[in-house]
Amino acid sequence: MPLLRRAAAALLGFTRPTSADLGGMLADHYAETLREVVSAKAEHREPAASAGEEAPTDPVVDLMTALEASVAKVRESRGESGPPATVHEIPKA
Fold it and tell me: How far apart, in whole angstroms, are the C-alpha atoms of residue 40 and residue 48?
């Protein structure tokens, strides 16, 4: 901590609170989860799900399929038809 900040903190009597000062209001969920994962691995079992961990509810979307469907829908609405455009090298002059 820079000298000026330390001096100001000393003058004002400010110190950074610790978890003990806060009376257990803080919890280290990462460390708790890590301990559970390590003990589960040691016991050759799957770790328990965390309290905040939820199973995904939305289906997984294939982005390329969704993009292709969207492009086809736009082309159809514009009245475009025929084979898709081709990509080729532009001749150098």
Answer: 8
Q: What's the Cα-to-Cα distance from 33 to each of 24, 25, 55, 62, 82, rounded to whole Å?
A: 18, 18, 17, 31, 56
Using CA of residue 20, residue 24, residue 27, residue 32, what is the dihedral sign?
positive
Per-residue pLDDT of the chain (93 residues; tens, 9 = 90+): 566 777 677 667 666 666 666 666 667 778 888 888 899 999 999 888 766 667 667 788 899 999 999 988 988 888 887 777 787 888 887
- Tokens representing 91 are 């001749």
